[in-house]
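Need tokens for this chain, all 398 residues.
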Amino acid sequence: MTSVDHNRQLPRSLSAATAADRALCATFFFLPVAKSAMFLSFALALALFAGAGGFAAARRDWRALPWSLPALALAFLPLLSLAVHGEQALDYLGLAYYWPAAFIVFFAARAYDIRPWLRAFAAGVFVAFLHAQLTLTGLAGLPWQPSALANYILYSQFVALAIVVLSVLYRHEARRDLKILYLLAMALFFVALLSGKGRSGLLAVVVLLPFIVLNLFPRIGALKMGLACLLAALAVVMSPHVQIRIEAAVNDVRLMQQEVRNTSLGYRADMWHTAVDLVRENPVLGAGGAGFKARWHSTPRTGQAVEFVEPHNAYLFFASSYGLPGLAALLWLYAALLRTGWKQRATTGGGMTLAFGVICVVGSFTNTMFVGTASHMTMMLFIGLQGALLHEATEAGQ
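Here are the structure tokens for all 398 residues:
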């Protein structure tokens, strides 16, 4: 039984449509595992989906949900920046030409059941998790590093997203054996978050605890849910690795008060201050995607500061690069995700949209989100999953 929506009579060829579905599964699996394999799988999925007539309803569906207009605005701004800021904007044109991937996934999610794609993504994160654990024990001998392990912030966000994905799958799964498997994987990923260095992923999971608990126990009362969330939050705060990170943050504050700024918090404060200065100077058109890099390195830097090329904050990145219109478009997109997801939070597509919107809002305070191949494609693929809402509405006969 294929996951193609037969009611819409989408595919001209059943085999091509099924192959496209499988290729999209591979795309989501390879997203945290290997970028080249992910792009090859996505290109194959695009060709098969187009060959199966998958874009027949694109003209009607592309504006069915409110995310499309801010997405188009965000895609247009880098092109405008190229005209305004010249060649220095070329390095950030990916902020424009990646957006078609979101629309492609949106149209595909309109036609297919996305749950196999979500399972494939969780499996890919598990591969990255195994690699990370083997590396910690000194047993890893693989000649490659999973995409999710490019840096600890990215890894924490992948693991957090996998926990949310598994909670959504658990809620909508009928098979007991798969439910147990999802719970075990969630437990492993939760341990990975607690023991890792990344804070943004862990913070996103803490914020989403009510959502996760409700997915695991759909009929739980408000009092019990609050108690469960409180216990989970206490477990997070009391964990030894989290205590170390809290102590490090407190120490960073003390060092900043002594004008010592070569710390994680000190670097971020300086980057954010630089980005804010650019916004003040260029509130309408911004300084271009490379504007922050040029300003940051106009002052001699040492240590880790030499490597920074963006402010590690999506809000400030878009505001400093494309002015206040860039920040407004980003906030518009996030608001559309949250609003759409909240309305349909009880469905697979709605739950994923809401949770991913929260992850975006939280992660954007400490990560640029749209910079870096793996992070950028994660944004595009998961934003596109909103198409599942149209698929689910069709199956429900609405």
